[in-house]
Amino acid sequence: MNSMLQMGGNTVLSSPKGYVTVSYDMSHLIDISLTAFLLTDSDKVQGDSGIIFYNQPKSPSGAAALLPAENKGTRKVHTIQFDMSKVPAGIHKIAITLTEDNHMGFSSVKNLKAEICTGHTTIELTPSSFTKENGIVVLELYVRNGQIKAKSIWRGFESGLEGLCKNYGVEVDSTEENKPAETKAVQSLPASAENKQFQNTITLEKVKGTISLDKGQKPVIIEKTPQITATVSWKTGTDYDIYALVYTKDGRQIDVAMFGASGTPPLRSFANGAVEHMGDVRRDYSSTKTEVIKLRLNNDILAVVPVVYSAQSNGTGSFYRYKVSMSIDNHSGTSVTISAKNANNDDRIYTCVPGILHNTPDGVIISPLELYSSPDSEYRPKLRMGPSNMVEVVMDAGPRNDYK
Length: 404
Hints:
Layout: E1 2-5, E2 10-12, E3 17-25, E4 32-39, E5 51-52, E6 64-72, E7 75-83, E8 93-100, E9 113-118, E10 121-125, E11 135-144, E12 147-157, H1 160-167, E13 185-186, E14 203-204, E15 209-213, E16 220-222, E17 228-235, E18 241-248, E19 253-256, E20 269-270, E21 275-277, E22 288-295, E23 301-309, E24 325-329, E25 334-339, E26 351-360, E27 363-372, E28 382-385, E29 391-394
Parallel strand pairs: 1-10, 15-25
Antiparallel strand pairs: 2-12, 3-7, 3-9, 4-5, 4-8, 6-7, 8-11, 9-10, 11-12, 13-14, 16-27, 17-22, 17-24, 18-19, 18-23, 20-21, 21-22, 23-26, 24-25, 26-27, 28-29
């Protein structure tokens, strides 16, 4: 059964759980993010766990979970699942909000609508027109007299995410012009998401010196210099191959590799040396082997993912046994190393992704991932644009590597 809910109206939901979708006509001019706030009876969050967004997509209680955005025909669709029976003690409401992060405003968003789906019931919510608003409270889910209800809000904020955060009691970092550039930055990609400044959640320090990162640690940001190198090292005894996956502003994935894959020819250098493989290293008697990817990052590159591969004619080899590590050096006094500490001695694991480099105007954000392929998989990883324009790595989803 389908029904409409007018702005300002409320209705009883047929089930405490379901999902909310927000959709609109796609455009390269706009960049929309969905954020949910779990609120007390005073309309304030209890803490960081009360904010559901691209960098924290699930509520610990299971009350809300943000799913990856999808392209369906000419429409972009954001989805958040909810279960009001699982809201934590003290939480009475979930507010579903949107921000337009390219600062074009919601006047540039065409055919915007939301739907609440519970069981076999779909409720459609459509707004009136907007002007300069960059942030919107779309709807609220709440409990009243034992009933699960929804209210159509569509209230706008010209200050975007900052206005939403202040409205719900979330402190945000200031953006004072006299603040040193190296003190803090935001884990965001691309630059259009620079205003996602949740304090103590995605704020990063710009680091200097020699840094080690382990899986699960917070990303860091380093100064972007004219030349950065990603060097992968391992103990001699096997022959790994290194390649780089590049994700561009226009949504392409480019594989910079000395060897090909199914439907993907070898490519040593991309964009006049913006990403360049410095040559294959063969077996020899040195105690440590290295291969290098050179980066001269330009504005068309959103992310680079170095990949370590060992299979087929290379000879297999455990990433743990051969002490694989990746170091990112900006040749200006900063080096960040990620080691394969979570690998095991399984020789049937052929691909390792130590981390991802996000190219932003503030610098290069380095996130430790330490992802591994499935046993016996010869397939490359694939990059995709996730929620809020964050590049994600999907293992075993790309083309199958050629026999060398």
